[in-house]
Queue: 2 jobs
Job 1
Amino acid sequence: MTQSPLPVRILGIPMDLGQQRRGVDMGPSAVRYAGLFERLQRLGYQVEDAGNVPVPGRDERRVQEHAWTELRCGGLRHLPEVVAACEAIYAVAKECAPTPEIPIFLGGDHSIAIGTVAGTATAGPLGLIWIDAHGDFNTPETSPSGNIHGMPVATLLGLGCEALVNLGHPGPKLKPQEVAMIGVRDLDPEEREHLAVSGVHVYTMRDIDELGMATVARRALSHLNHLSRLHVSLDMDALDPSVAPGVGTPVPGGLTYREAHLLMEILAESRRVASIDVVEINPILDDRNRTAEVAVKLVASLLGQRIL
């Protein structure tokens, strides 16, 4: 591709507070080691690696400051720390939002999207493409685990814990019709019921099997056609574990390597991608950094790399 006028800013978010299994905090380092910076430079982008967003670790307790939230939100795991982290993430995303640069947020677990999407949405209407094996549509009342990485989409639509819903600025950050999910195949029972009537556009793996990825991708874009800016949130567990083994919550029957690339290529052709999450890479569970390497290739496709 020719030199892009749009700069790219890489931001690491080494957070593993939203779930129980350790290791996803090393995801940003794994993606950097896999050569994201160099790959995007070769595509002609002006790339800045802005380092990591400071986030609290599991041992940095802030119970006194946020004690009321734990009482009102059903004792969600690491809630005070997640709130603090997402506030920092929100501030950085908000700073990037009105600029022409494309921020790439490297997680960390998927709870980072509470901050990245909320901050990005401050610059105006935003569509969300949620690529994930899971719906992440739980609330404190429906979650079997209390893990916040299973709640970001519900939170962004104004459902669930008040401290998370009102993060950054009060109220919902998106409307249901502004969200399209792709690759879903593992939902909790009550989550399934709520998602089915939510108004969110959901494309499951069965839809992809029956319709093909090209049709699903174009239908998802069509649903969001009224929005000029898209945030693409890519959870690497959307891919089949045979392709991306280094994730904390693998689910068989996911996207193939080519399905994932085709999706990225079609999203790139829309010329509406404004910001990107890449989350849930766990190097401890990976095979020679394969999952991070696949992530780098997918981001390259999302930013315009083509076969010809």
Job 2
Amino acid sequence: MPKWFESWFDSEYYHVLYKNRDDAEAARFIENICRYLQLGQGFSVADIACGKGRHSRVLASLGFDVTGLDISAASIEYARSVSGPNEHYFVHDMRHLFPVSELDAGFNLFTSFGYFENSADDLLSLNNIYQALKPNGIFVQDYLNPDHTISHLKAEEKVHRGHVSFNISRYVQNGFIKKDIEVMDGAEKLRFQESVKVYSAAALKTLHEQAGFTVLKTFGDYSLQPFNEKSSARIILVSQKP
């Protein structure tokens, strides 16, 4: 049986449910973090778990040579169909060695991590990112802050997208924040799930250090405010390969 992230991310309903994501917010964050990092035009960067490439396209617009990697073949097909000359997309599982190396920077954004049952696979993924970077290369990871997320968890929600309806249940179970998604499309009823590991900022920092990174900075939101364990919505780690 495919894992939840293999079936859900490749489903058309995933993109229907999340079609209203804030692209302007994503662009502001990329611009903020790249300005902070002082990345130069022409730098080689990777968007790891890039989806349809919304962050990748912003990175490309800033003058970077961008490689987008994602496990969803459907997402990569779309990203390629709208790509520019300095965008390159590959179907890729982050647990495997990367198809590119000598990167100046890697980005893993919008909680595109923590999906695997075994934490060893998360560390393996970070090891692969580490190997793909140049010495002194930068890795930026944007993850949900579990304290904030759990305290604001909406247990039940109904969402309507045209003729498609979604019944969503959220809960915490065995160290994961889970979302059960029932899709109703006419007479068709389908079920999917999302499952994201509860990683504190300290736990994520430890994983980065185990992979060999030096953690330089921790931000708490997309405007790069300092991280606060209780009130910050995000954990944004900036790490460097020595």
